[in-house]
Amino acid sequence: MPRDAATASRRVALVSASVGAGHDGAAAELERRLAADGFVVDRHDLLDLLPAGLGRAVRDGYHRMLVAAPWAYQRLYAGTERAGGSGPAARALLRAAEDRVLRALHPDAGAVVSTYPGASRVLGNLRLAGRLTVPVATYLTDFSVHPLWVADGVDVHLAAHAVPAAQARAAGARDVRVRGPVTDPRFRPCDPLERARARARFGLPEHAPLALLVAGSWGVGPVRQVARELRDCGAALPVVVCGRNEALARQLRTDGIAYSYGWVDDMPGLMHAADVLVQNAGGLTSLEAFAAGLPVASYRCIPGHGPANAAALDEAGVAVWIRDPADLKGVLGELVGGPLGQRQRGAGLALFASTPADGPAAEIARLHRPGPPPPPPGPGRRRRLRTRRLAVTGAAACAVWACAVGTGVATTYDGPALMRTLGHGLDLDRLAPAFAEEGHHS
Fold first, then answer.
1. In a domain, 16, yes or no
2. Strand intervals (E) in 282-410
3. Which pairs with CB-CB distance under 8 Å and at least 24 residues apart come from 194-197?
4. N vs C: which end of the chain shows fewer Cβ within 10 Å?
5. What is the pLDDT of residues 243-261, one digit of tens each?
């Protein structure tokens, strides 16, 4: 077979979303593994494919909600979990992205993989309509599976562990396969010499127990409170990573938390230096810690997917969930030097016991099959789509907040009222009545 024909027959598309770093991180590692197996991989960001540039508004609105009104996100998350799906505004917004996504996919792609719930919804709809003729897989990046992760039309859901697999099946997924987590290979256990070198590289104390506190790429949650509690309980010295929130890192240093960093490029090295990880969201960083042989504690989680992931990780036996601040010192002490820490390390590393031939990338390769290019929409459909997009864009500009996109959550609450509030910096006095009124209908 000629080289160009061989390349065309081994092509995979990955659709993620630049919300935080977890969805993109999983997509990046899947891309690396598939490329190593000889596939050409195309990466797409769903937020870039939303109409009228609404992706940035969705991302910024979600970020602002987490920072200024986390209780609102908790309510949205719980409401859509009970409802088992998204509201009409979010569905309209995702429908408006279908043609853009279809045009973005290379006609030679033999499989499409989503690492983001909204993308799964779009791809599943295209598959159900017969407009996408090749298999679609969803890689579940979270240990807790919100119902929005499970989209009709998706052929296969890939899970890291039996706990999220069971949750996906309970949410209606028919073909769920446990294929382990995906993390950068730099996250691996280290020996004492590597540990000493890592501490020296970051200027950390040579012998003190270190608790690595992470708060995602945005540095959200009660990070200052937790850092002070870690310092004051005395079980371990806090080392805090604030992501892109440089202002938070400066505040912590002012608080006397000396080892506070913004964005860190060498997270594997920092994990090698630490004795325990304290996290609040249960995303990709937790999986990286398991791969590095680092015990993990969930504490003072951010709302929504934070407690849900903490509960699932605790159920799986790979991370302990500290619910009571009075337990912080004792649990951290056991994780750093006791049998609990040894059990946690073993359980975390066991997630990665499968061979590459059994992993998610290998499963995607097995699903892959070249198909004919998707048919373009007819002229009449294009005219209808233009009209619909104009209407949807106008509505979504007021309701885009509803895609609480950390886990793809969308809602049925009063979108225009909340979007006006978000546009004014989340004035809580205006926000609360809107939710109070909607609470009677939830």
1. yes
2. 296-299, 320-322
3. 194/272, 195/272, 195/273
4. N
5. 888 889 999 999 999 999 9
